[in-house]
């Protein structure tokens, strides 16, 4: 990591201590809820417990990890997670010191609210400031890629497209020039020694096939010699159809195949419980008044039923009936003359005026919460496709059918990463499937929360693929 990046990481770490102190003085000087400041007269002890609790919680939540390539929604989840751990630790320490330290519960929760707000605000401000610096090309890591595999090309395209990741690829090394668009060919892999000696390289990305183990070892030893950070893009294509988890038996790494997080009963129960609670709360909050209003608009704007029912494929390829608000004119054809599925396109004439608004806001998907209550869909998961689209894609997209090994969702990892809407080419559908498989293999409760949060953010910002 470059010197300026190390300074940035140190600044992130130390700033939180300042925020802990600032939150204390804001809470004690502004009595927001008229609960008084009694029991808040030991600032040194309070701040000491606060800083100790926060950094202990941060250690377990890994909040200070490198998240440049992650969305802010993920960082929000980590901040909330850290705050929850902070609450538990602070309460435990306070209980142990109850003879020396007393604080009113209401006042402490006010402090917690202020702390969470300041943490979110500061980290968002830092992120935007860093993005601005990176955009001016004043802060980035210089990266060299070893190899020209598909993984190498995908990595280059990602960091080249999303400048805020903070990486600049100065070129790649391989035994032959593969003519990667806009990426400079620097020579054969043996040239890495001269490259590290004569140029400033912050990180080396090894993207070689597993069969070239000697070359991989050579690159790693050179990077160690020059104290250069190295990462390996694993060539796990042969395991792409399954979930992989690496652990050790002794010191021997072992790949566990078909080890899915949602295979565990406790995870299934957690996800199902969350689905039910989230759906009920949503219907109580907005469903009871918003759903009838939308239904009236649809009824009076065009002829036809309010609810559109479509056969889609769910868990284990079983057919389910997916419910949506109708957004197209009644006599719309789903199948074209050549037998292919007629997907909705931009400025599609089949879409009604109210339907266009519903699609852009995702409100047309609200009836699918009934599917969630029925148990054939989840709030988060791979989006279910219509039967004709499944039949088309299963023959042209690698590992397509594996997206059906868990319940489909109203929103998903692919959708919040820009892969919603029309999929006219197999390549775009392949990317969607890859994101779905990533989600299936790496599911966690916190990832579900992140996806829901990012869905809300996309709704507020607007999604160019929502049509």
Short précis:
With 467 residues, the protein is an alpha/beta fold.
Write the layout of secondary structure elements.
Blueprint: H1 3-29, H2 43-61, H3 72-96, H4 105-135, E1 141-146, H5 150-161, E2 167-173, E3 185-187, H6 192-198, E4 203-206, H7 213-225, E5 229-232, E6 244-249, E7 252-257, H8 265-301, E8 307-313, E9 319-325, H9 353-361, H10 368-374, E10 378-380, H11 387-393, E11 409-411, H12 413-416, H13 426-441, H14 445-461
Parallel strand pairs: 1-2, 1-4, 2-3, 4-5, 10-11
Antiparallel strand pairs: 6-7, 8-9
Helix pairs in contact: 1-2, 1-4, 2-3, 3-4, 3-14
Describe it for me?
This protein is of the alpha/beta class. The protein folds into three domains: 3-135, no CATH class; 141-235, NAD(P)-binding Rossmann-like Domain (Rossmann fold, 3-Layer(aba) Sandwich), CATH 3.40.50.720; 263-461, no CATH class. 49% of the residues lie in helices and 12% in strands. The chain is built from 14 helices and eleven strands. Helix 11 links the parallel strand 10 (378-380) and strand 11 (409-411). The longest helix has 37 residues, at 265-301. The two termini are 42 Å apart.
């Amino acid at each position: 990591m470059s010197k300026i990046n190390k300074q940035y990481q140190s600044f992130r770490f130390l700033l939180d201590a300042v925020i802990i102190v600032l939150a204390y003085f804001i809470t004690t000087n502004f009595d927001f809820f008229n609960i008084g400041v009694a029991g808040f007269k030991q600032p040194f002890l309070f701040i000491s417990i606060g800083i100790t609790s926060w950094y202990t919680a941060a250690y377990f939540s890994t909040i200070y990890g490198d998240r440049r390539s992650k969305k802010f929604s993920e960082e929000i989840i980590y901040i909330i997670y850290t705050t929850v751990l902070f609450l538990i630790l602070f309460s435990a320490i306070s209980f142990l010191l109850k003879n020396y330290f007393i604080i009113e519960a209401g006042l402490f929760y006010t402090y917690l609210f202020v702390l969470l707000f300041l943490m979110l605000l500061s980290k968002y401000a830092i992120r935007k400031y860093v993005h601005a610096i990176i955009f001016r090309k004043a802060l980035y890591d210089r990266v060299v890629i070893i190899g020209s595999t598909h993984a190498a090309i995908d990595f280059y395209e990602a960091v080249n497209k999303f400048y805020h990741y903070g990486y600049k690829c100065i070129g790649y090394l391989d035994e032959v020039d593969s003519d990667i668009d806009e990426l400079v060919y620097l020579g054969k892999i043996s040239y890495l020694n001269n490259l590290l000696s004569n140029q400033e390289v912050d990180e080396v990305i090894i993207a070689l096939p597993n069969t070239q183990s000697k070359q991989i070892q050579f690159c790693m030893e050179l990077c160690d010699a020059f104290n250069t950070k190295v990462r390996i893009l694993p060539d796990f294509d042969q395991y792409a159809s399954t979930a992989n988890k690496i652990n050790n038996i002794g010191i021997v790494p072992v790949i566990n195949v078909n080890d899915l997080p949602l295979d565990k009963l406790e995870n299934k129960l957690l996800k199902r419980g969350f689905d039910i609670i989230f759906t009920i709360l949503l219907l109580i909050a907005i469903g009871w008044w918003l759903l009838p209003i939308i239904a009236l608009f649809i009824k009076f704007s065009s002829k036809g039923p309010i609810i559109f029912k479509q056969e889609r494929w769910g868990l284990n390829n079983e057919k389910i009936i997916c419910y949506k608000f109708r957004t197209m004119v009644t006599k719309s054809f789903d199948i074209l003359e050549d037998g292919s599925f007629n997907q909705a396109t931009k400025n599609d004439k089949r879409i009604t005026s109210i339907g266009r608004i519903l699609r852009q806001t995702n409100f047309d998907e609200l009836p699918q919460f009934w599917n969630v209550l029925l148990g054939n869909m989840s709030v988060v998961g791979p989006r279910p496709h219509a039967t004709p689209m499944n039949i088309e894609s299963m023959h042209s997209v690698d590992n397509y059918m594996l997206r059906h090994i868990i319940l489909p969702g109203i929103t998903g990892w692919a959708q919040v990463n820009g892969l919603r809407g029309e999929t006219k080419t197999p390549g775009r559908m392949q990317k969607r499937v890859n994101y779905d498989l990533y989600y299936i293999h790496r599911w966690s409760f916190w990832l579900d929360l992140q996806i829901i949060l990012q869905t809300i953010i996309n709704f507020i910002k607007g999604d160019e693929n929502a049509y």
